[in-house]
Description:
The structure is a single chain. The chain has helices spanning 17-31, 53-58, 63-66, 70-76, 136-139, 146-165, 182-200, 227-240, 335-353, 394-412, 414-430, and strands at residues 9-13, 37-42, 46-47, 68-69, 80-83, 86-90, 95-98, 101-102, 108-110, 113-116, 119-122, 127-128, 173-178, 210-215, 243-245, 250-253, 257-260, 265-267, 270-273, 277-278, 297-299, 304-305, 308-313, 318-324, 327-330, 367-372, 376-383, 387-392. By secondary structure, the protein is of the alpha/beta class. It has 3 domains: 9-126 and 279-353, FAD/NAD(P)-binding domain (3-Layer(bba) Sandwich), CATH 3.50.50.60; 129-275, 3-Layer(bba) Sandwich (FAD/NAD(P)-binding domain), CATH 3.50.50; 367-430, no CATH class. A 6-stranded mixed β-sheet has the order 5-2-1-11-23-22. A 4-stranded parallel β-sheet has the order 15-14-13-19. A 3-stranded antiparallel β-sheet has the order 6-7-10, with no helix packed on it. Helix 1 (17-31) packs parallel to helix 9 (335-353) and helix 10 packs across helix 11. 41% of the residues are buried.
Amino acid sequence: xxxxxxxxxxxxxxxxxxxxxxxxxxxxxxxxxxxxxxxxxxxxxxxxxxxxxxxxxxxxxxxxxxxxxxxxxxxxxxxxxxxxxxxxxxxxxxxxxxxxxxxxxxxxxxxxxxxxxxxxxxxxxxxxxxxxxxxxxxxxxxxxxxxxxxxxxxxxxxxxxxxxxxxxxxxxxxxxxxxxxxxxxxxxxxxxxxxxxxxxxxxxxxxxxxxxxxxxxxxxxxxxxxxxxxxxxxxxxxxxxxxxxxxxxxxxxxxxxxxxxxxxxxxxxxxxxxxxxxxxxxxxxxxxxxxxxxxxxxxxxxxxxxxxxxxxxxxxxxxxxxxxxxxxxxxxxxxxxxxxxxxxxxxxxxxxxxxxxxxxxxxxxxxxxxxxxxxxxxxxxxxxxxxxxxxxxxxxxxxxxxxxxxxxxxxxxxxxxxxxxxxxxxxxxxxxxxxxx
Length: 437
């Protein structure tokens, strides 16, 4: 690809929350003023906010209604988009390689291509880490993409069709979710809500036809969050009738269920792995860039990679350690981290163009909120004025819903986000509460 108008080219690989927010911010500033060319690269043509995938899996969210088209976003915000999957890097020539793209029949849609960059931002996110557990890849479903989320949903609907048709079918669906972090907890609660809705729409005789089990290796659910939040969430899950097995380590996944290290067999009809993350494999040996054991690129506090000042990384695929009041601190792989890093990089890339000193990343932990579907939410907010405040119930639910709206505000602006909220409210009264196909 030829250099566009002779401008400094900033290539952003990965259109997740952080990468897309960064492309939008830079497009509205540097791109609009013709101070730089902004190019976003992603394997897909559309974006959906990853924290919503558990709702897509349960069927409580129609992903096609909430997706964002990269080409349209690029047109509205003065950046360019090119579909592709990064497969290589040449730091000396400052080019990235995009793998060829194929359609469902195997016919080549796009050939292998190279793209020149002056500044490169890698924001390719993460995927689930099964830690090499035997049988996990063969017998588990995962929740890393919309396609995987929809596959879970199709499994749920397919098993329920026996009841609708009047045929004798499975009398009980045993679903196990491995990993009681935020993703596992939210998915399990959303599946419980889906079971209740299936009864309403005639897909099941009663919600007890679906038995949910949450399996966690540590001694409590949400081990990365304060114990008081874990305790509150545990109480809510028990109240919903969800089985939680803490301190349970998985040794193997089979077609019939989960084998634990203690020798127990947990029978399942559907097993979903939601424990742990790691970066994409290609980051491990990417032209000598430094990476850690879970394939994250090591970055300095400026978010520049340690081996190349022209290459930056942010979000789940980056490992950034900064100094805090309690010593060195590694930034957690969370949506608020990616949002804050995108904001800093928008400033740093502008400063780089102006030959100014780059700023160091300062992480502000605003707390954690865990959705328990429409039932409730639990979490804590952290701030300078209020300190650390525990929230639960409708107030926590309100704050949780606002997180997505803030993401939309960054991408669409105030007025368009307002119209999207109005659209969502109208759809609630005209569409089923559960996607039924």
